[in-house]
Amino acid sequence: xxxxxxxxxxxxxxxxxxxxxxxxxxxxxxxxxxxxxxxxxxxxxxxxxxxxxxxxxxxxxxxxxxxxxxxxxxxxxxxxxxxxxxxxxxxxxxxxxxxxxxxxxxxxxxxx
Amino acid sequence: xxxxxxxxxxxxxxxxxxxxxxxxxxxxxxxxxxxxxxxxxxxxxxxxxxxxxxxxxxxxxxxxxxxxxxxxxxxxxxxxxxxxxxxxxxxxxxxxxxxxxxxxxxxxxxxxxxxxxxxxxx
Lengths: 112, 122
Fold this sequence. Notes:
heterodimer, A: seven-stranded mixed beta sheet, four-stranded antiparallel beta sheet, B: 122 residues
């Protein structure tokens, strides 16, 4: 079974600074036939459902601010927020969909 | 606009059953899969499985086979999750989530219901 591990578990960043969250898969998520990485990122605020931010590891969902970006390939991925805003405080999850969908354990992002 | 609206919170005794509904609007119901996701208190989301909204065929993750049943009523664009023989460990928020279509059906989720809290306690 694939294991998804996020780091760090929590992160405190100053407003306007860059925040980076990492996600490591125990197996390759790059599907050779279409050259796509089957990795998505979600944002979850308290009392709300997860919100899709990024899919195919780096494709921003419609309506998501361009300060959010995804990178990586194969087994190592990152979500970067280029300039942290107060409304970005949330828990962030990566999710692989190469096989049975599986979420990482989450990274809690706070303001320093 | 796409919306998934779930039924309200439930408080159940152990051994009882519960049925959660998820009414979809703003898109053609049968064009996307409907998925169910559990989130236990303080935990990350856990995918339970999905139902083919065109055929009604459900698929369950191993750990959700037996007491969990996915069903549909396409005439009212609604999906259902029924849980029988409830246990305290079933206490969680249950979400319906639409499977994304990006030139094909993929198992990431672009729209989510607001969640239904099911609490199992005597």
